[in-house]
């Protein structure tokens, strides 16, 4: 994880995920669902920006991540 805000998250990935893909980010007490907005190749892999869907807003009270925390990522569906 590179960054998280109320409306989205930036993740470092080993593989590319096509922008427009809907994904679920699972954490120990729940999940966030969003859409990949960009995925670009960097020196150490891919950097991916995800915008959370309405109804999925991050708060520190709900989830306080440690840097480089391992998430489970599930591709929910591919949108066109």
What is shown here, in short?
With 80 residues, the chain is an all-beta fold. It has strands at residues 3-5, 8-13, 21-27, 30-42, 45-52, 72-78.
Task: Give a description of the structure.
The termini are far apart. The mean pLDDT is 83. The radius of gyration is 12 Å and the shape is globular. It has strands at residues 3-5, 8-13, 21-27, 30-42, 45-52, 72-78. It has no helices and 6 strands. It has a 6-stranded antiparallel sheet, with no helix packed on it. It is an all-beta fold and 80 residues long.
Count, helices: 0
CATH architecture: Beta Barrel
Overall tally of domains? 1
Q: Give the oligomeric state of the chains in this entry, treating copies of one chain as homo and distinct chains as hetero.
A: single chain
User: How would you state the average pLDDT, rounded?
Assistant: 83
What general outline do the C-alpha atoms trace? globular
Number of separate strands: 6
Radius of gyration: 12 Å
Order of helices and strands: EEEEEE
CATH class: Mainly Beta
Distance between the termini: 26 Å
Main sheet overview = 6 strands, antiparallel
* CATH-assigned fold name: Elongation Factor Tu (Ef-tu), domain 3
Name the helicity range. Answer: under 10%
Structural class of the secondary elements? mainly beta
The residue ranges in which pLDDT falls below 50 over 5 or more consecutive positions are: none
How large is the share of residues in beta strands?
A: over 45%
- Biggest sheet, strands in spatial order? 1-2-5-4-3-6
